[in-house]
Amino acid sequence: MDKTDLKEFERIKVEDTKIVDKSKIKDVSDDGIDDSVLSNLTIDQLTYMLEYEDHSPEIVERIKYYIKLKK
User: Fold this and answer.
1) Which of 4, 29, 37, 71 shows its CA 20 to 30 Å from the CA of 54?
2) Cα–Cα distance list, 50 to 12, 28, 43, 54, 60 (Å)
3) Percent of the chain having pLDDT more than 70?
4) Taking the model in full, what pTM does it have?
């Protein structure tokens, strides 16, 4: 390593990585999901939400309700 590389390396400060608390994000992400949004989704979209996305138990029950309603 030459001096410029060493100076550049010392200039960069690395901070610890923090884990995101999903419970705090969930409140924000579930706010936009209401009955009008769920009623306009297809069965495939609702199934995807149920299987692959993390939602509160209330949202999960509403997703199941709309899947049953559309079948």
Assistant:
1) 71
2) 42, 18, 10, 8, 7
3) 59
4) 0.57
